[in-house]
Amino acid sequence: MGGNARMSQGPTDALPAANTMLVLSGCALFGAVAGAVGSFVLARRRALLADVAAHASLPGVCLAFLAGEALGVGGRTAWLLLAGGAATALLATWCVPQLARLRGVGPDGALAVSLSFFFGLGAVLLSAIQSHDSAAQGGLNHLLFGSAAATTRSDLVMLAVLAAAAIAVVALLFKEFAAIAFDEAHARVLGLPVRTMDIALLALLVSTVVAGMQVAGIVLVVSMIIAPAATARLLRGSMPRVVCTAALLGAGSAIAGVLLSLRYESLPTGSAMTLCAGAAFLAALPLAPLLVPRAGAPAGGATP
Amino acid sequence: MSGAHADIALALAGFRAGYSAAEIKVHDVDLRLARGSLTALIGPNGAGKSTLLKGVLGLTPVHTPERVRILGQPLDAVRVRVAYLPQRSEIDWDFPLRAVDVVAMGLYARIGLFRRVGRDARTRAARALDLVGLADAAHTPIGALSGGQRQRVLVARALAQEADLLLLDEPFANVDAQSERTIAEALQRLRAAGATILAVHHDLASVRAHFDDAVVLHGTVRAHGRAGDVLAESAVARVFGFAGADGRAWAGTRA
Questions:
Q1: N or C, fewer C-beta in 10 Å, chain A?
Q2: CB atoms within 10 A of CB B61
Q3: Which of A132-146, B81-95, B99-113, B119-133 has the lowest mean pLDDT?
Q4: Which one-letter DSSP state was computed for residue B48?
């Protein structure tokens, strides 16, 4: 099992057919989770925070890689990279409200400062790793834009575990997520655990980002979280329908993106996925006005 | 709970609330609302009406919860029995929800974490929607409702909660005549059932029609009594630069 951990090192390695299926299902899983989690992130207006979390995972991943090498367990250890990425992503998202409180910075300034500082730190660490030891960097060189072909078996296991956890959390706390996103003040008065729920959503978001960064890439992973959810919102319907539509769109875009990037080797997987998710959004744009519900009629029943 | 407390639904003594230590919007508020009272909270723009409601509910960054007693107890002990209706404009009406989903949210504290909205909750929500005349719109997405209908959905959410104390932020703001009538009836019915209602209200001309009592707020409580008496107090009118028999013009806050 341990020997399989590094099945392929780059997009130029041909994948056996069975592995292609494995990679495709892993990416579909990621797309579905990203879409579902994204519906709540978008509803809670945390889209830019998701971008901060994604970019800020880079320094943590690099540090985890170095730690793995130093400890002799191998830099490219999925769980270690997950933990490292999550740590700096959480640190950066924690910084945002602290910075926003400073006079003259404001919420958007805080997002920008936090994102660029952590991503810059990550870029420095990444170039240091790449110049220092090119043999060991393995999958790290595709970290920015993603490469499905560089996915390892342990990446896929991690994606499956994440998907199961995300589905469980979303299913168990669906109504609380919806209530808090719709009317936070009312939810607070009811005594719903707003803070705990926000932390749960952040945890889901960060694990989705970090689990997806190998296939989608750190720079573009946020688009896989937000674009399918935005498309689903355009298409209307109740919250459960939006979540399901976003999950399906996410899985579809991920599969299409992987197939494209396997066909055209120079095309990074994350870029291809993002283009597919964006194309779905554009395709939904002309449909949206047709789906605007009329007063007094249930969704779908048109009474002009 | 002593007998005296049992008759007072909301008691504030030296209450204070605001957005920071430098921005205290309401201060030294002493207020006692009897159970079963239906009270309008009036005052010029910026008088702190919304801040008072939010502060009592612990929603402002600065507030003094130790100076609030609801049904004789601190808020945390009686949350389920308190309903809040925020200003309609503070809510994202594009959110993918149907009217009945919003109304059922009034029951979420009762339903509890991890549980689904069951048949019983759905029945209660449907009944509340019926009381505000929106039985037919239960499955309509909230984005497709008119302003008045949206307001009625929020009132129905408060009704479904079957709360003992309702704090409503402008339930009559910008609603059509039919919605105004329906909401007024709903409030009367709640009061008849023993609930206590405090509602921010802007239109002075309709205070007497919709409410029994009135509280005039301007940083602190300036007057409290029967709606007719409070509005007739010339001192109050002078303090607020209130002019005109139709009562629409608060001329400003300069003394």
A1: C
A2: 12
A3: A132-146
A4: S
- A23 min Cα distance to partner chain B (Å): 33
Of residues A212 and A257, the one with the higher pLDDT is: A257
Q: What is the DSSP letter of A15?
A: P
Residue A136 has what pLDDT?
A: 54
Q: Which carries the bigger pLDDT value, residue A9 or residue A103?
A: A103
Is A186 in contact with B157 (Cβ distance < 8 A)?
yes
- Does the CA dihedral A96-A100-A106-A107 come out positive or negative? positive
d(CA B30, CA B68): 10
Res. B153: pLDDT tops 50: yes
Q: Min CA distance, B255 vs chain A (Å)?
A: 32
- The shortest CB-CB distance from A298 to any of B54, B139, B143 is to B139
Distance CA A170, CA B218 (A): 45
Distances in Å between the alpha carbon of A42 and those of A9, A224, A228, B24, B112?
35, 12, 10, 33, 25
Band of the pLDDT at B5, cuts 50, 70, 90? low
The closest CB to that of A175, out of B59, B117, B144, belongs to B117
Restricting to B residues 117-156, those with a Cβ less than 8 Å away from any Cβ of A are 117, 136-137, 139-141, 143-146, 149
Starting at the edge strand found earlier in the chain, the sheet holding B82-85 runs B82-85, B165-169, B196-200, B38-42, B213-218, B220-226
Average pLDDT over residues B1-10: 67
Architecture of the A20-286 domain: Orthogonal Bundle (1.10)
Per-residue confidence at B102, pLDDT binned at 50, 70, 90? very high
**Distance, CA of B101 to CA of B125 (rounded, Å):** 8
Tell me the domain boundaries of chain A: 20-286
* Pairwise CA distance, residues A38 & A224, whole Å: 8
